[in-house]
Amino acid sequence: MNMQKRMDMDLHRLSIPGIYIYALILPIIFLTFDFHVHHPLLSFVYSIIMLMLSSLRLIHAKFSLVLYEKSRQLWFYLLTSLQFTQAGIIGTVLALAMYDPRFSSINHMIILAISAISSGALIAQTPQFKVALSNLIVLLLPSLLVYIFVDSYFNFVFLFIFYGIGQIFILLHAHKNYYRGLLNEEELTSQRKSLEAANKLDPLTKIYNRGYFNTAYELNWEMAIRHKHSQALLIIDVDYFKAVNDNHGHLVGDKCLISVANIINSVARRKTDLVARFGGEEFIILLDDTPKEAVLELAEEIRSAVAESVYKEGDTNLKVTVSIGVSITIPQLNMPPNDLIKTADKALYRAKEAGRNRVCYYSNQQCLLKA
Predict the structure, then answer these.
(1) Which residues contact 14 (CB under 8 A, 6 or more apart)?
(2) 8-state DSSP, 46
(3) For the chain, which terminus, N or C, has the lower number of CB atoms within 10 Å?
(4) pLDDT in tens, 217-241
(5) Any catalytic annotation for residue 281?
(6) Does the CA dihedral 97-85-45-15 come out positive or negative?
(7) What values do phi and psi take at 331, rounded to 5?
(8) Using one digit for the tens of pLDDT, what is the confidence trace for 285-339?
């Protein structure tokens, strides 16, 4: 999940409690202080409007992910429009509570409620500073206009502005902490993914290591049983590799293994092809649901590509070859997964016995030489 989407989803998640608060706060105040008895029409109109807006916000929340995937801009516009509309209505009620005699019985409760709502909104909208700031302005602007244009309240203007500035500073601090925490979380996630990737890879050749192969192999085996797919295995061994190390040194041997790994990885191009270093100078490839002809063609292509490559080290031109054992099976429920590895290993042994630099296919308990 990218940074923008994470911030959007946090804004959506944190704003959900506000849906219920906005829907209930005015009816609770009206009922508790009998405002609905003396002013039933005002109570009914404000309560119904807030309830309808909260219902629309609940619908938006229910389909939020679907809408977001289709259009982030439309999702954001609907979210903020509904929030700002409710904030504007609450702000209007606060303004009326300041100078309208009809609200004199509940003005103190309205002021307390709005103060709590404005603080809560800042926390809920911390992920998006501009949204939180806009919501605060919409909430407080009606009351500020009353303080400015009603003479008896003009002395409160500076106090009200001071309150607004204080809220903005709180918002800035909260947003900064949120964003810093988000960056730290992203960095930790990135580091964790890097470590996970490193644990899957062979440090020398940078292809998958045996530990990862073993885990993936078992999962593929189970999937193959379920879907009745064939599984093909190629075990590749660099011929006379000990002589390479003895004659040219282990550093040259390492470079040789890296080159062979790169060739294998470039030939096995499908996303479903699993290429790994099996140990020492051995490599292994697992192919899912691949016809025998294609498997043998791939094995021969690898053998040929390695044999034709020249590894230059100083003035030395080094050539190596590989022997490849191939085995194919359709996994069955009671079949041990290691059977496929054992038969591919037998095919590899037969290829080496037959002179190396060749492909041997294990079939019906016999190794059929290719190349």
Answers:
(1) 123, 124, 125, 126, 127
(2) H
(3) N
(4) 999 999 999 888 999 999 999 999 9
(5) yes
(6) negative
(7) -60, 140
(8) 999 999 999 999 999 999 999 999 887 777 777 889 999 999 999 999 888 999 9
